[in-house]
Structure formats: C-alpha cells, structure tokens
User: What shape does this take?
Amino acid sequence: MARTGYGSGKRCSCTIVNSPVGKLTLVATAEGLAGILWENERPGRVRLNVEVEDASHPVLVETERQLAEYFAGQRKAFAVVLDFAGTAFQRKVWNALLTIPFGETRSYRQIATQIGHPDAVRAVGAANGRNPVSIIVPCHRVVGTNGRLTGFAGGLDAKAYLLALEGTKPMTLLDVPDGAGGGLVVARNQARRNRQAIPPRSGRREVRRQPASPSRARS
Assistant: This one.
C-alpha cells in the first residue's frame, strides 16, 4: 500500500501525462507524490506550490509507470510514497480511502464510522472532494449509501470508468445519472478498449509559480 507523509508549502515539480480519463497533472515534492490533478480541475480545489515542470523527477516517473500499469489492467495496488498536506480530519479521511480494496466501494457513512466520526458524513464528503491524489488515493470508490454515483472532481464519467476498470460489481452502482458514461456497461466497455500504456515523457523546464493547481490542469 502507498505510504503517506504530510508536508505543507513545499516546492513541487509536476508533469502532465495522458490517460484514458484525460490528461492528468502529477505533482511531487522531494519526499513523495503530492497530487494527481484532473484536466478539468476546479481552481482552488487543491493548492500546491508548483514551480517546475520536470518529467524526470523520480517520483513522477514511478507514478506514471504505475498508473500506466493500472490503466492497462496490470496493477491493483500502488506502491508510491505520498506526501500530501491537509487538516488532521482530511488526513484521517484520506487514509481511510487507502484501505478500500480494489474492486470494492464504501459509502460516505461507512468512512465516517471507520474514522470514529459517524455523524460527520457531510464533512467526510467535503474531505473526499479535496483529496489531492486522485486515483491512487481512491476517492472514486466512495459512493452514496444506496450505491449511487455522487460528485467527483474528475467528473462522473471518469468515476464510472475507474470503477468499471476495477470490475466493481453492477449492484454496487445504482442510479447512475444520465450522461455519466451511459452507465456501468458503457464505462466498462470504454475501460476494456482503453487499457493501454501511457506514453513516457522526458525533459525539464521552468514554469511560473502557481498559487493553486497548475493552470494546464484546469478546464
């Protein structure tokens, strides 16, 4: 399982990689992976001190490799050192997400109970939405109490795709809204077609400091 450390305000490097769910911005500190951000990332959702684009950063290289294996159906667990920053409550939630097995889901209420705050369902949802390391810290595996797909930073299409890729049982995905990949069947077919390696990137160049998420990761 991925290990976690908690830094704040650290200098970060990033790289942008292609994936079946769109371009992903990978962000790392010297200590570990600090973020995986979406192509249509909401400004301000995750705040990172990104100063350099560096596809040769060892953490980013390893993360890209493991993500390629995951999308190709060759990896079920990640072994990347994490260095994400958040409040004590957020870190409790994110660590609980790391315990959800591949191919399974949990409700927000189950996560709230797991971390010892059974009445904090809304707060768990908010922390889940602020998860900086999407996919590897699997916030996509959290669904509504009735199994319904709920809000997701990468969009419901991406959430349905990731769950289908992991072979989540159909009965755990109820009431998928229209437009969310057409439902589980379409998402699963897309996942099957798109299981391919992510092309490697190389090179290093300076980028401007950005107070929030890298602009190239925003819609």
